[in-house]
Amino acid sequence: MTHALTSRISVARACLARFCADRSANIAPIFAIALVPVVSLTGSAVDYSRANNVKAAMQAATDATALNLVQNAAKIPSGDVSATATSIFRAVFNRPDALNLLVTASSTSGGTVTVSATASVATDFMGVLGMTSIPIGSAAVAVKTPGDGLGCVLALNRYASGAITAQGSTTVNLNGCSMYDDSNSGTALTVGGSAHVSALSVGVVGNISGNAGLTTTQGVHTGASPLPDPYATVPLPAYSGCDQTNFSAKKKVTIDPGVYCGGMQFNANADVTFNPGVYVVDGGNFTVNGGGTLQGSGVTIVFTSSTMSDWPTATINGGATINLTPPSTGPLAGILMYGDRNIPVGTTFKFNGGATQYLGGAVYFPTGAIDFSGGAGTSTTCTQVIGDTITFTGNSGLAINCAGYGVKPISPTGVRLVS
């Protein structure tokens, strides 16, 4: 019995020694402990990758929103920039995993728009480390870039066929300046017969009939965006009473600014100098017959009607000699002729003085049907023709070297991101 007990004790000691020496049982817990940071790092990478994808989409939407806002700044109600930005942003940003989305925006009078967006993305793996979401954000600043300002012809009608027309043997030479047509008609600009138009560039919202009659140095662009009326914010000057009624000139005379009721008639032998100032034609017609001569600087001729009827028209006949230029400063800077916006659409204004007709600055009839021929034989430096529709007849020469004239530029503007 003693020997057997001793033997069993020896076996037990040997087994205990082998158990104590065995380290294989530690591998599992050590591996489990080591796996925690590995899984955390891998999970963090997955969560951050998804958050970065949402952030990239957010930045693209922020950029698009800023560009849209600066392009349409004039249409946005004052104090409504952030609400408008939020609406635009949500229309292009479709990521439901962006939580607590907030969009803010601001704009300056100088045409700079700033848009910011913030949100958060819920985590799948990082929650075990106590981080349940990842904050993200984006920002963009957009500005409006000025165009070249070299437009000298602009038709404002949005729908008319032939909103700008050159027919017959007409030659229109736009010396270093561009033509713009806001009509979306398929024949918005019509160049027919043997007519020819040369320009710096041509921009048309719709399309063109008679491309062969166009020559440009900077291209013809269809499908363009319509240009705004550059003088839309210039108010009609105040006036009252009548300084002259049914005015008629038949000889050499100098006249003063004032209200000319019933129109102004300049006969063949008239040689009239306009003193600087505003001449209001209240009803009637402004007519210059062949052989008549008009000259003056710092002049604006306003066409209106105090009775809202008997709206004035204008007719300058062939053979007239015209040299009139506008004021360079003041509320009517750059405007030689100003048509009341209440004049019925399609009212005709004919400026067919021919080679010796120089109308400097802006000939502005936003509702008028302008019939133009002139300037081809003069030292034309600055003429803008702006009407509801414009028809060129005979030969015309226009240019836009307008330094010192005070005119407002005509050309498309662009937008760009600055950050």
Description:
The strands form four sheets. Strands 18-20-23-26-24-21 form a six-stranded parallel β-barrel. Strands 15-17-19-22-25 form a five-stranded parallel sheet, with no helix packed on it. Strands 1-2-3-29 form a four-stranded antiparallel sheet. Helices cover 18% and strands 41% of the residues. It starts with a helix and ends with a strand. By secondary structure, the chain is of the alpha/beta class. It has helices at 2-21, 27-71, 81-92; strands spanning 99-107, 112-122, 133-145, 151-155, 164-166, 171-175, 178-181, 189-191, 196-199, 202-204, 208-209, 214-216, 220-222, 244-249, 252-255, 258-266, 271-274, 277-288, 293-296, 299-304, 313-316, 321-324, 335-339, 347-354, 357-359, 361-374, 383-392, 395-399, 414-417.
